[in-house]
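tool_call: predict_structure(chain=1)
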Amino acid sequence: MSNGPLPKRVDPRKLAEREVRIAGQAALKDMPNLCQALVDKEGEIQVDLQFAVDEQRIRTLTGSATGHVTMTCQRCLESVEVAVEADFNLGVAASEEAAQQLPRSYDPLIVEGEEIELLSVIEEELILSLPHDAYHDDCSINTSFGEAVTEENEKPNPFSVLAQLKADNK
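tool_result:
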C-alpha cells in the first residue's frame, strides 16, 4: 500500500495484477478542469484506490475520493463549502470495442497506451460528483429594494380543507 502524494502516471494493468492499493492526497490546484467550477483552488482530496483482477479476469480500479470544495451559492452568490465524494468502479479496457464487452457493473476506463494520468481519472470522477446547484441551507437573498427574501419550507397543505370537511361531517 502506498500512502502520501499520488503518483502522476500509473500502469493500471500491472498494478491490478499485483493488487496494489494507493491512498493519499490530491491537491485541488493540480486539477484545472475541476477548479473551473470552484471558487477556491486551495484544499486537498483524500483518495483511496484499489487495483485488482476480478473473478472474470477483468482488471479493475475501485475506491473513493472525498473532500470539501468551495463553490458559488446559486441563491446569494456567496461562497459555500460543499462535500464531494466520488466512488470508483472502473473496468480497464484496451479499446472502445473492449469497453463495450465489460459487464454493466463497471464503468469503462480505456487505456490505449501503457500508462494513464491518475489525477485526470480522479478529476473526471470528482467533476461528475459535483452538485448541479450548490447553495446554503439557510441563506437570505436581498432584493433590489433592500428587503431580505428567505426561503420558506412550510407550504400550506392542499388536503387540509378535506380534513376540515371530514371533521365537520362527524
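agent: The mean pLDDT is 84. Proceeding to next step.
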